[in-house]
Amino acid sequence: xxxxxxxxxxxxxxxxxxxxxxxxxxxxxxxxxxxxxxxxxxxxxxxxxxxxxxxxxxxxxxxxxxxxxxxxxxxxxxxxxxxxxxxxxxxxxxxxxxxxxxxxxxxxxxxxxxxxxxxxxxxxxxxxxxxxxxxxxxxxxxxxxxxxxxxxxxxxxxxxxxxxxxxxxxxxxxxxxxxxxxxxxxxxxxxxxxxxxxxxxxxxxxxxxxxxxxxxxxxxxxxxxxxxxxx
Length: 231
Known about the structure:
Elements: H1 3-7, H2 16-27, H3 37-50, H4 69-73, H5 75-82, E1 91-94, H6 110-115, E2 121-124, H7 126-130, E3 138-141, E4 144-147, H8 148-155, H9 159-167, H10 172-177, H11 188-199, H12 204-211, H13 215-222
Antiparallel strand pairs: 1-2, 3-4
């Protein structure tokens, strides 16, 4: 390039400026997914693992759940590995509920290779995820294993009623054979027991599930709106 072109302002460089500008533009290109649902899944996944102010952090980052380096650094890698939702009913789920969000690609992810982490994620429905919760109760009966919620759905019995009967020591077979409404016939001993458990600090939901009562019915017993004469 002629020197007078630079001095006169005809050109701004010998060509390096143009190549530099193109390089910057290329580096600033986005993945094009920022408005997609799968990108929001990735973003929320990172937030609940990395952001202490996220309301879900105590159940994720607070428990040591993390996102592997390959996925944490790149939404494109996450989308490439996981694909997109099979349906609107599916969301991200960890196969091992105590494990992290890991890709398991030891050839591409130093993080997973160093920790020997498996691929631990899948797209799952709400019912599938409910069976995978760490506080869930799995019951094997009739040659099948399901959580209580799934059994209640399959057997067409109210979930809270089923929980209550199982908590009283019934087997699943006994729980579904119990005539409906038997435990709704409250006597004074049951009323006293409900109040005693409440006074001792037992959780409201566990008391309600123990007897298969509705929230309103249980609260009325505890607050003496009903059975006020029982002492």
